[in-house]
Amino acid sequence: MTLALPPAGEHTVDGRRTRCRISGDGPPVVLLHGIGRTLDDFTALHPALARDHLVLAGPSGRPGEQS
């Protein structure tokens, strides 16, 4: 079974806009990418985890990071 990767959405957290991807249902799992990386790093992992978990993927929030 293949699950489609959900689109990334923009959210404002503490006054900062950030891109993140949220999907699934169950115990939460947080995927954080680092400087120079993107949400694309989780393309294969995100849908697999979302079968049994609520998956939240985005930047770690350090200055200079982009999604």
Explain what the structure shows.
The model has no long low-confidence stretch (mean pLDDT 81). With 67 residues, the chain is mainly beta. The protein has one helix spanning 45-50; strands at residues 9-13, 16-24, 28-33, 54-59. Strand 3, helix 1 and strand 4 (54-59) form a beta-alpha-beta unit.
Radius of gyration: 12 Å
Written as H for each helix and E for each strand, in order along the chain, the element string is EEEHE
| Total number of helices | 1
Reported for the largest beta sheet, the result is: 4 strands, mixed
Structural class: mainly beta
What fraction strand?
A: 35-45%
Count all strands and give the number. Answer: 4
Task: Offer a concise description of the structure.
The protein is mainly β and 67 residues long.
What would the keywords be for this entry?
67 residues, mainly beta, 4-stranded mixed β-sheet, 1 helix, 4 strands, globular
Question: How does the SSE layout of this entry go?
Answer:
Elements (H helix, E strand, L loop, with lengths): L8 E5 L2 E9 L3 E6 L11 H6 L3 E6 L8
Parallel strand pairs: 3-4
Antiparallel strand pairs: 1-2, 2-4
